[in-house]
Amino acid sequence: MTRNNNHVKALASIVINNLENQHDWTKTQIHRQPNLPRPMVYGLPPKRLYVHPDEQIATIKVEKDRGQRITQNPELEWVLPLHLAEKWSPAQFAAVFDAIDATPPSQDPSADDAPGVKDDALAQLRLWRGAKRGKRILLATVQDDSTITYYFMHEGLVKPRQN
Fold first, then answer.
1. Is residue 43, in this structure, part of any structural domain at all?
2. Has residue 162 been placed in a domain?
């Protein structure tokens, strides 16, 4: 194994350790495939990390009509371990997005469904979940002191959140 591969493996281990022990993620795994520029990590956070702005609007409408809250269950997320000193180009990030599916591999065939969605009004919420969601990765930037900073990166243009 080359020095570079050892570096990437160490970054992935640091990130998995942080996700599991500091942020309570479960089902974390290292994902390798030939067309990925480097191995990635994926796992399940304890709560949902991102809600698409259009889904927020649809959820608010459904909640108002029903008079009850809609559960926002967590989804598996892709994580790309990087070191702060690494210089990545837009082409390298594009190669990562080209190599992955919208969602990480799952053994649960119902993972694409919005939980509790039974009728047409709620079925609209499926548009932003599971395999239908846009591609996104959580960048895990590791610093020399092992501090990790997380940022979401989306493929293409994404509608900004409304505050």
1. yes
2. no
* Structure tokens, 26: 């479960």
- Residue 40 covered by a domain: yes
Is residue 161 in some structural domain? no
Q: Tens digit of pLDDT for each residue in 94-115?
A: 999 999 999 898 755 454 444 4
Question: DSSP 3-state assignment of 96?
Answer: helix
Count of beta carbons in the 10 Å neighbourhood of residue 74: 14
Distance CA 126, CA 76 (A): 15
Where in the sequence is the domain holding 73, given as residue range(s)?
3-154
Distance CA 139, CA 142 (A): 9
Q: How many structural domains are present in the chain?
A: 1
Strands (E) located in the chain: 26-31, 40-44, 77-83, 136-142, 148-154
pTM of the model: 0.83
The owner of tokens 């932003």 is 128
